[in-house]
Amino acid sequence: MTTASPDSQLAQAREALRRGDGAAALTLIDAIEPSLAVHLDRALALRLLQRLPEAIEALDEALALDPYSLLALLSKAAILERMGHVKDAARVYEDALASAPPPEGLPAPIKAQLDHARKALAENALAVQAQLRQATEAMGASLSPPRRRRFEEALDIHAGLAKPQAQQPLLLHYPQLPAVPFHDEAAFPWLAELEAAAPMISAEFSAVMADRANDFAPYVEYPKGAPVNQWSELNHSRRWSAMFLWKDGVRNDAACAQCPGTAALLDRLPLARQEGFAPTVVFSVLDAHTHIPPHTGSTNIRALVHLPLVLPGPARFRVGNETRAWKPGQAWVFDDTIEHEAWNDADLPRTILILDVWNPYLDEEERAMAGALMAARRAYYEG
pLDDT per residue over 129-143, tens digit each? Predict the structure, then answer.
């Protein structure tokens, strides 16, 4: 009598699994030399037989051979969830998502399981968040609003609802500067003068739009052949358009002449002054129902100021884990090397004035030294 080969037995076992015959499959599998595939099939047979703790043991054997096996992790989490161990399942789902390859090319059933894993993790994170809030509610009663916001972000990160946010400058990272999404306005006492001038600036902008709308050009203008990444929809599009009063440290005299009051105000403000790089001051017009995708700026030695001028309806702005709604005439200062994005949810275009200032944590000597670094690097590549 000829004994069936292991491959033949495994094929027979898998045919039994496809029929839903866990008992027949298990008998065949138990006669085969253990391997990653055999442990996975054994777990499936045990799962069909409702022997769930044993199925977990089989999956643990599989994970002992390959701790990053996506099938083993997803199967184990699903069984734990089915057994009512949702907290343990969430931890395993987290490992599965961390080890999952990019979704392109994955089979549809695996994609569906990964989608379920994300949903289960989100639900678990909300439960963790609720418990953390309950445990700390009394302690935070005396916190000032800025400290409260910082604590709430820490709580959300610890619960798994948010991610730590880091500075990701495209050009120069100056180390040991705090990653502050929105700076404390008290560090910029001149903001009051800027906000008081909002009606005048808005009137000058409206006059320019009425007479010289063609002076506004697409904000994003990558040349042909350049990798546009997230900018494909807005590249060379007037859905996000701009007119620069200053650009990379060069004054646009024609534009400033059209906005004399605004130009005079800018001369009084402590803008970042860095030859070849700053200041940049721009009217930024975002079309109705348009989204600016997540991105980061060039260097953390500077910070950006937004002054809303035209808000025909709801418009939002996210920096890191914090999302705010613009309010007419109310400026804020933020670190644009932290990932940020914007939405105009209104039916008409939204306009803000953007200008750059020095990072308040950098002293004048360091500003000069950092500027020298950037200039020297540019000279190297242009030489």
Answer: 999 999 998 887 888
Distance CA(292)–CA(343), nearest Å, equals 6
- What's the gap between Cα 354 and its chain centre? 21
* pLDDT tens digits, 286-304: 999 999 999 999 999 999 9
Burial 175-212 (b: 16+ CB within 10 A, else e): eebeebbbbeeeebeebeebbebbeebbebbeebbeee
Angle of helix 36-48 versus helix 52-65 axis, rounded to 10: 170
Instruction: Indicate the domain borders of the chain.
Output: 6-128, 185-382
> Over the Cα atoms of the chain, what is R_g?
29
Cα 251 from Cα 280, distance rounded (Å): 9
Measure Cα distances from 254 to 7, 247, 263, 323 in Å: 79, 13, 11, 35
Question: 235, 224, 352, 233: which is closest to 286 by C-alpha?
Answer: 352
For the stretch 56-88, pLDDT in tens is: 999 999 999 999 999 999 999 999 999 999 999
Kindly state the average pLDDT of the residues 178-195.
96
Indicate the length of the chain as a whole number: 383
Mean model confidence pLDDT for the chain: 94
| Half-sphere exposure at residue 86, Cβ-oriented, CA atoms within 13 angstroms | 12
* Residue 300 neighbours by CB distance under 10 Å: 27
Cα 109 vs. chain centroid, distance in angstroms? 27
Does residue 40 contact residue 62 with C-beta atoms inside 8 Å? yes
* Domain 6-128 falls under CATH 3.30.390.10: no
The CATH H-level (homologous superfamily) assignment of domain 185-382 is B-lactam Antibiotic, Isopenicillin N Synthase; Chain (2.60.120.330)
What is the distance of C-alpha 312 from the center of its chain? 27
The residue whose two tokens read 């045990």 is 46
* Choice among 135-144, 319-328, 372-381 with the minimum mean pLDDT: 135-144
